[in-house]
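Reading a protein record of the kind used here takes only a little practice. Each token is a code from a learned vocabulary of local backbone shapes. With that in mind, consider the following protein and its fold in token form:
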Amino acid sequence: MIELDGVPELVDPVMVAAFEGWNDAGDAASAAVAHLDREWKGEVFAALDAEDYYDFQVNRPTVFLENGVRKVTWPTTRLSVIRTGGEKPRDLVLVRGIEPSMRWRSFCNEILGFAHELGVEMVVVLGALLGDTPHTRPVPVSGVTSDPDLARTMDLEETRYEGPTGIVGILQEACTHAGVPAVSLWAAVPHYVSQPPNPKATLALLNRLEDLLGLRIPLGELAEDARAWQVGVDQLAAEDSEVAEYVQSLEEARDTADLPEASGEAIAREFERYLRRRDPGAGPGGNVPGGGTGHATDGGEGGSYLRDAASGRTRPPKKPRTGTDEGPEGGDDPGGDGSSSGSGAGSGDSGGGGE
């Protein structure tokens, strides 16, 4: 039985979740939820029992000292609540943790139990996958759902993916079967610079979340971090002619794919979005606590990069991969809505989807 006596009554709550691991290329999704929790000073009210869902040989506990006393932190999933404020406030329930090692159905049922008790109106799960997308262009973010009505009313893609999936896909399907509206937002991370952090992808996810929920999210220094990240990758790519040539080919493919979108209607929509972001009185979110006036376009941050074992230099790889990426950094399912990471991100109109 879930008891939430310590949680106040929430206003139009939306649950926003992200999980480290297979669904979280560049840590972009988990960093987005961490940013929300930090900027809006989230209050943790529950943590799932780590014994039930995690293999501690895969996700090991950590030991630390506090005032000279040794303590242990166990891998788990925590839930916190934040109040966004503004003229039309909407509370968020944040779910942040590691993809569970076992008992996924019980895990999702426990998350949905909290959602039911808190009156959550919609669940948004964030993810990131590796894709053939250039770091110099805006990060593609796709929004997918299993609900045809939700896809139509919120201008989302209806997922058609079939294949292996991660906890993002399982939680979305669990929400659908429970009658809870659910959306997944997926950011495409350049596969040739896959190490975390990737603040540009994190920023893109938060911008898309703003549009989806009608909130104004305080970005703090994230926009500047994103610009610095891009400058750092630019410098590393310039050191290797093969990588620079490859990035140029990705840019050309992306720009060609984007040409049909450069219609008057698309430009008008983007201009309206620009105005909403920069007019403090516009939009349902109004002003936000915690400062952060930057609701910016994607920029860059100098983060971690792939290491060349032969030279010891840190840089993008000599021979970028062009096929479907697999493994823990490949996102929930590489291609989500049926397209692979090699095609979805390169199309320029999605992050490869997600499931």
